[in-house]
Write a structure and sequence with these properties.
33% of the residues lie in helices and 17% in strands. The protein is an alpha/beta fold.
Length: 338
């Protein structure tokens, strides 16, 4: 990338995937702020970690399972103080950071404002992340919204950005397209055996998990399928390859919105078990790719949605690959961030 030193905030495993190529093409004096959480630790320490050598600052995750409110405040304060100190120090050494880019993690934007960093870019694809939005309104200079943003869910964030004169960029492409490959519609038919399903289970503890998380495990005994479960933070041989690993399965059963999005982008029929509402998923609902339930309580609605998903899985096994549209989101982001 042709811009000056940047601070990249990596708060979630998907952020490492998203910003990987940007960091590879960035400045040798870029800074990476990476949250301390199991899957990020595994990705950074993995022998095949594709990120170049950079100054990495590890910071605590303010939220998590069994983290009390006072602990959240202490963690957030320590994180803010540590990042502010490093950013200010870089200005004194003659290699100042020119911009900061974060996705849904606004604490570093406040640190960057204190350090007088001119460009502070806040990227979000989660309308309901109202707390982060409020922080971003007072600290960001630019906002990037995901495709199909649903304003009625964002707590007035989009309108507030316009009222305050913040520069708002609306993406047309989908974020997983920056690190995934468009799938082929031609698939080899599978006549024998039972479908293999990838099940993504979450532990919870995220900022909105309490309101959205629904365990999918109760569905598994009645599926009649071979299910491989991978729980959040579970050790994996190739953590960087997880989004592409799901494409080896006939279908996906996911409690994770992120992994569900990655799966449908690759043409894998997916059953999302969650109360989460995200605009970027709207285009897939009803497309024979994405099916959604927000409860595992048995009844006609659940039976209908599960049956429709099972039929889509079987159709793909018979060689009926589903055409998936593709965007040039990578170039979109580069034009905005550069």
């Amino acid at each position: 990338m042709g811009s000056g030193p940047t601070c990249w905030v990596l708060d979630h495993p998907a952020h490492l995937q998203l910003f990987q190529s940007f960091i590879q093409e960035g400045s040798p004096v870029d800074i990476i702020v990476a949250t301390k959480r199991g899957e990020i630790d595994t990705m950074l320490s993995h022998p095949n970690n594709p990120l170049p050598q950079r100054h990495i600052v590890r910071v605590p995750r303010p939220v998590g399972r069994k983290v009390l409110p006072i602990q959240r405040e202490i963690r957030a304060f320590k994180r803010l103080r540590a990042v502010t100190s490093i950013l200010k120090r870089r200005r004194l050494t003659g290699k100042p950071i020119e911009k900061i880019v974060c996705k849904g993690a606004p604490l570093e934007l406040r640190a960057a404002k204190k350090a007088k960093i001119e460009r502070r870019i806040y990227l979000t694809d989660t309308e309901v992340n109202h707390l982060a939005h409020r922080h971003a309104l007072s600290t960001a200079t630019e906002v990037i919204l995901s495709a199909n943003w649903r304003e009625h869910l964002d707590g007035g964030f989009h309108d507030a950005c316009k009222e305050q004169g913040l520069k708002v960029h609306q993406l047309e492409g989908e974020l997983p397209h920056t690190y995934l490959t468009q799938p082929s519609t031609s698939k080899i038919a599978k006549e024998e055996g039972v479908p293999t399903i990838f099940h993504r289970a979450l532990l919870g503890g995220g900022i909105h998990d309490k309101e959205e998380l629904v365990p999918a495990a109760p569905l598994i005994p009645d599926l009649g399928m071979e299910v491989v479960t991978m729980t959040e933070n579970q050790p994996i041989n190739d953590p960087w390859g997880l989004p592409r690993y799901v494409s080896e399965f006939d279908g996906v059963l996911s409690e994770s919105v992120t992994l569900a999005h990655e799966a449908v982008c690759q043409g894998i029929p997916t059953l999302l078990v969650s109360k989460a509402q995200r605009g970027f998923l709207d285009g897939y609902l009803g497309s024979s790719l994405l099916f959604r339930i927000d409860s595992t309580v048995k009844g006609p609605a659940l039976n209908h949605e599960v049956a429709a998903w099972r039929e889509a899985v079987q159709m793909c096994r018979r060689g009926g690959g589903i055409a998936v549209g593709w965007s040039n989101c990578d170039n979109e982001l580069r034009r905005i961030i550069d």
